Amino acid sequence: MDQAVPEAAGTAAPAQPRTPLRRTPLFEAHARLGAKLVEFGGWEMPVAYPSGTVAEHRACRTAAVAFDVSHLGTVRVDDPGAFDLLQRTLTNDLRRVGPGRAQYTHLLEEDGSVADDIIVWWVGDGRFDVMPNASNTDRVRAAVGGEDTTASRAVVAVQGPEARRRLAEVAPEAAAVGRFRVVPFEWKGVTCLAAGTGYTGEDGVECSVPAASAPGFFEAVLAAGVVPAGLGARDTLRLEAGLPLHGHELGPGITPLQAGLGWVVGWDKGPFRGREALERERADGPRRHLRGLLADGRQPPRQGAAVVVGGAETGVVTSGNFSPMLGRGIALALLAAGTTVDVGDRATAVVRGRELPVTLAKPKFWPIQETER
Hints:
Number of strands: 19
CATH topology of the largest domain: Gyrase A, domain 2
Largest sheet: 6 strands, mixed
CATH superfamily of the largest domain: Probable tRNA modification gtpase trme, domain 1
Distance between the termini: 46 Å
Oligomer: single chain
Shape: globular
């Protein structure tokens, strides 16, 4: 971050105009539902509704919830060279999929660290909808070109074991989309898109609906018995599922290999941005690895806490929170590769000078693995 220029003595700094927060097409619906609204990535978004984050989290694990994820970007790339451009820019190999499929991928910096993690919707033969994180849309567009169509639509993510059954009452074609498939569907005569993707560890569907129709679609989904959920539950759900968050498990200095995401790299394709640095790391071995931490009680290790194994500081917590399903604190942490540790070993997270005992775990907490029951 750039540092401010000091003002001369006796003068006041001029007031800096604040950039207005963006609002999704569903903002008024969130306000009517009593959502607590917060700033997130330049957007004013619901963090929780009156039922609270824990109730919303459990509703996703046992029934169905709907998230407004319209703050995520959509960059439409549909020129004749789109396939080749994305192949040489992003890490994954589009030859593994095809039209009507979605793919998780990364945009790297030249040093191999993750500039953004992205879902690509391959809508048709010549059209790709590239979905970056909210604050990275301009960065991704600068890398892949295309048109920013974020403002033209809303994206409603319906997630949970009951998601498809309840969504079928509103949009049967959307509810039937396969895992990591992309299909068009119609709702009240309007053409929309659905993808079988999500960010909770549960089954679900993300529906891209034109902005003017989105409030009605959202209302119809809720009327089908789906619970509205905010960004608070989205974060605790993804943490339980061991899914990375940009700015935490991914970002400056963190490569896909360190985050345990080497499968998103298409080693068998041609050059892509950051490939040379990543190949060097693959040859030498990552200097750190992502691991899970299970607290003994409800208090979680928090981001930035040091992790101590065998009396030596070996890493840092990247995300931590209370797990509503496990009833205890959980965290993800990057630990030095030379650390001799195994799942089940004991460690300590230093939280504000206080030692918090933890157990090392796989970086995925839910669903509970058979071997851990």
